[in-house]
Specification:
14 strands, Rossmann fold, 316 residues
Length: 316
């Protein structure tokens, strides 16, 4: 049996996980676990939202809105309009009606005393998703953005309302130093044949997972860790990851992100780095860091190309 663990967040992580599932389904008796970022989580209008958990769940279930890139396919927004009419919630943060059903179910279960891990397991049972989903932690460690002007705000307000236009100086997850990995996370990593870092935002999607005490150490003990670049030709594929990288002093280049994760032989995390054909000239710089570069097509434009990206990572 081939055991694979994926660390993921956001739309890129959801698409990549789909590709890994498809690639693994072609041979052997695979077992895949995806550990999902929960730093994007928030409370809004009395309900608990977990955007990255839902993005991965909906994608694996074939229920995601591929046009918008988030939420449920065919969703409506009647309840969201009513909330705004009452002056509730955030007028710039849209909640679909079907999506709200998920949030209400989640919130009810949490208030009944279930852990986040138990809630994710319940949500996962509705559809045959073919992958075990785990949150990175059961603790609430929502990401906050520290701004250059001196104040801070929840990551979702900075990302969705301001479109990352307010200059950040740091990203924090209050309470993460006291958090523990969700049940099953460390065990899955320990039993994995390979751990894959999805082409998700290195700072606010993968970063919070790595910040949970114990996760980095577990990765350093894993047989092999392979990262996949979310930057192609010096440009982020989706979102505003370049702004996040600049805030922590990392250039928006594939080799720079590989160096940010670091080589396991030098106290970092990576054994190999899958990078785009457009960045082939940067492969020697990655090699110089002590990380094995693998150059491959990285545009996940459809199911076939997404599976090919995942296959490149699995073979790295």
């Amino acid at each position: 049996m081939t055991r694979v663990v994926i660390l993921a967040g956001g739309v890129g992580g959801a698409k990549f996980t789909l590709g890994v599932r498809a690639a693994l389904a072609r041979g052997g008796d695979p077992e895949a676990t995806v550990v999902v970022n929960t730093g994007d989580d928030l409370w809004l209008s009395g309900v608990r939202l977990q955007p990255d958990i839902d993005s991965v769940l909906y994608a694996l279930a074939g229920q995601n809105d591929t046009q918008r890139g988030w939420g449920r396919a065919g969703d409506t927004e009647r309840v969201n309009a009513e909330l705004q009419a009452w002056g509730a919630g955030w007028p710039w943060f849209t909640l679909g009606d079907l999506d709200l059903g998920t949030h209400l179910a989640r919130t009810g279960w949490l208030r009944e005393g279930l852990s986040v891990t138990e809630v994710v397991a319940r949500l996962s049972r509705r559809w045959p998703i073919g992958v075990r989903m785990l949150p990175m932690t059961d603790s609430e460690v929502d990401t906050h953005v520290l701004l250059a002007r001196g104040d801070r705000m929840h990551f979702q307000e900075w990302w969705t309302r301001h479109r990352a236009a307010l200059a950040p100086v740091a990203f924090e997850n209050p309470g993460v130093q006291d958090a523990v990995p969700a049940p099953g996370v460390l065990e899955a990593i320990a039993e994995a044949d390979v751990v894959l870092l999805a082409p998700s935002n290195p700072v606010v999607s993968i970063g919070p997972i790595l910040a949970v005490p114990g996760v980095r150490d577990a990765l350093r003990r894993a047989p092999r860790v392979v990262g996949v670049a979310g930057i192609i030709g010096g440009t982020v594929v989706r979102g505003m990851a370049d702004v996040c990288l600049s805030a922590i002093g990392v250039d928006t280049r594939s080799d720079a992100v590989a160096a940010h994760y670091g080589a396991r032989t030098a106290g970092g995390l990576l054994d190999a780095w899958v990078m785009a054909e457009e960045d082939a000239a940067l492969a020697p710089a990655v090699q110089a860091c002590g990380i094995h570069p693998v150059v491959a097509p990285l545009w996940m434009t459809d199911a076939a190309t997404t599976e090919a990206v995942a296959q490149a990572a699995l073979q790295a």
